[in-house]
Design brief:
The protein is an alpha/beta fold and 556 residues long. It has helices spanning 49-52, 62-66, 86-97, 141-148, 176-198, 208-220, 225-242, 255-258, 280-285, 333-343, 350-358, 389-394, 422-427, 432-447, 484-488, 516-542, and strands spanning 7-11, 14-25, 28-36, 79-82, 103-106, 118-121, 124-127, 132-134, 166-167, 268-270, 291-292, 297-302, 312-316, 321-324, 326-329, 344-345, 359-362, 364-370, 383-385, 402-407, 414-420, 457-460, 473-476, 501-503.
Length: 556
């Protein structure tokens, strides 16, 4: 059923309409809320997030709505956004909603989206980057975008993760009951790992691998001996696949900080027909002339403050210069670790560089395999690999990082191979024929069928080798500290009282570290912080004598 509430909220000359669609799925009501703004003034969903929090409408004052909107007496700043991933696009959309129209987005690549990369494979959309909305629900800003685009209006795949077969390295399929038992036990262990942060225990294992191994052994001892072998394989396979959402070996992840993330919900939704569709509401807000692709940045120079001149200059590798008042830098954290020390003038403080190193790079990749004659039945191409701990320990090639094969949605002849951890980085150094041969060997082994054909076409991601990405995700390691995020989020500039450079991206958001909604949230926060800084700077300038500008005024 559908219930629609139309709630006009006056905000100056603008009027917002909140539409609540409630539909029933599997006996539960899922609230799908989207916000439609006036055609004359585009406002992203985050402005009304307080209304949507918790799946119901709360009170929201006009002062709260208008707090980030510049009044007519405040001069509009000129903003340069570096990066057209979802953090940069969200920042731009938020600036638009706050009345800031004078901005430009500089994107190093020839496309927008960053690690949201929907590619083209034999006339089908396939995702080489983000594919799932993690923690889907009304509070999730990316879920809100997807809902506004109507992405989830069509029926979704209702199969549970444990509905798929678990295959062993001797070509056997694990019994469905034992598969479900192993899956359920692993979910319990993972939830317990989240709780460690809220109730720290000094005797708790410092790394996730030890934490998981101890609890797996304890649980296995309670099971009948005839069940232990297969359940152990499911648990081991689940742990290996769990690495895909972290990007690292579990022995490198700090158990005590793992639960510091806000997981919101356990709901995970795949975006059908390409994750790039999530960006459409943002791209509709932003004039296409404001986005410049193929513009890698070489230098960001902050000038001494002057009233009548731009406060900074951004130099591109092609020689173009852009002058402005503020920069929102959404370059991925992994890339900033390499380029950050030389990218900014004045240089970044040592404390910020150390904070960069505290957040660890996560490595994940996908290998897409197209077959002329598919060897699986349509919609039954999902295969989870139940590696045993001994097999993972004794195997010395990158294929032990493979945890799952999955039929690409909307196709019947393309499999996606999911790979994570250090092995994902090693895979990038192999040629495509070598990749095809290694993956085929794994399929033949776990399916117990030496006749499995080679793919006719192979497409892969290479996020670690991508100089504009450097990693696929982020996690907190054994030497990480949450206090480093306070340093990470600090703006930068030659005048500490009037900083000009703000940072955003999924590596700068501790609550949603390494997620798409984390990147979006940080972009929105950076735009709001910029507005606040600009209001403060304008107020201070109004209360002091006019200074002569030391910079040339003939800026473009």
């Amino acid at each position: 059923m559908a219930v629609v509430f139309r709630v006009p909220i006056a905000c100056g000359p603008r009027c917002f309409v909140v539409i609540m669609n409630v539909f029933k799925t599997r006996g539960k009501f899922i609230t799908d809320m989207c916000v439609v703004a006036s055609r004359f003034y585009s406002t992203p969903l985050n402005v009304l997030n307080p209304l949507l929090a918790g799946g119901h409408m709360n009170a929201l004052t006009l002062e709260e709505i208008d707090s980030n909107i510049l009044c007519s007496s405040v001069p509009r700043p000129k903003v340069i956004i570096i990066g057209a991933g979802i953090a940069g696009l969200s920042a731009a959309s938020q600036l638009e909603s706050c009345g800031v129209k004078d901005y430009v987005i500089l994107e190093a690549k020839d496309r927008v989206g960053g690690r949201i990369h929907t590619a083209w494979m034999s006339n089908r959309d396939v995702d080489l980057g983000a594919e799932w909305i993690l923690g889907a629900g009304p509070k999730n800003s990316v879920f809100q975008l997807a809902s506004a685009e109507g992405i989830f209006n069509s029926p979704l795949d209702k199969r549970a993760p444990y509905d798929y077969p678990y295959l062993t390295a001797n070509g056997c399929v694990i019994d469905p009951f034992l598969k479900l038992l192993g899956y359920t036990l692993f979910q319990d262990i993972e939830r317990n790992a989240r709780k460690v942060f809220a109730s720290p225990n000094p005797s708790c294992s410092s790394d996730l691998q030890t934490f998981y191994s101890l609890r797996i052994q304890q649980l296995l001892q309670r099971l009948p001996k005839e069940c232990q072998y297969d359940v152990a394989r499911v648990l081991s396979g689940q742990a290996n696949h769990f690495r895909y959402f972290i990007g690292a070996s579990l022995c490198d992840v700090d158990t005590r900080l793992y639960g510091s993330k806000d997981f919101m919900t356990d709901v995970k939704l795949r975006v059908p027909r390409g994750f790039k569709r999530v960006l459409n509401p943002l791209l509709n807000d932003i004039p296409s002339s404001n986005i410049l692709t193929g513009k890698p940045v070489r230098k960001v120079c902050c000038h001494s403050e002057g009233k009548d001149c731009p406060r900074l200059t951004v130099l591109c590798c092609d020689g173009d210069e852009f002058k402005g008042d503020y920069v929102i830098c959404t370059i991925p954290l992994a890339a900033l670790k390499l380029d950050g020390p030389t990218l900014f003038e004045p240089p970044l403080p040592e404390e910020k560089v150390k904070a960069f190193a505290s957040v660890k790079n996560g490595y994940c990749n996908k290998i897409l395999l197209e077959y002329a004659d598919p060897f699986w039945a349509h919609k039954h191409g999902t295969m989870k690999l139940a590696w045993s701990p001994e097999e993972l320990e004794n195997r010395d090639d990158w294929t032990k990082g493979i945890s799952l094969f999955d039929e690409v949605e909307g196709t019947n002849d393309i499999l996606c191979c999911y790979l994570s951890g250090p092995e994902a980085h090693v895979m990038e150094q192999c040629t495509l024929p070598e990749v095809a041969e290694s993956v085929t060997f794994v399929l033949r082994t776990f399916l117990g069928d030496p006749s499995i054909p080679f793919p006719t076409k192979v497409l892969r991601s290479s996020w670690t080798s991508d100089v504009y990405a450097g990693a696929a995700t982020y996690y907190l390691g054994l030497d990480s500290q949450l206090k480093h995020f306070e340093t990470l989020s600090l703006p930068h500039g030659d005048d500490p009282k009037a900083p000009t450079v703000l940072f955003a991206g999924d590596g700068f958001c501790p609550d949603y570290l390494g997620t798409v909604h984390g990147a979006r949230s940080s972009g929105i926060d950076a735009a709001n912080k910029l507005i606040s800084l600009h209001k403060k700077l304008f107020s201070e300038e109004q209360s002091r004598p006019t200074d002569n500008c030391p910079c040339p005024s003939n800026s473009p």
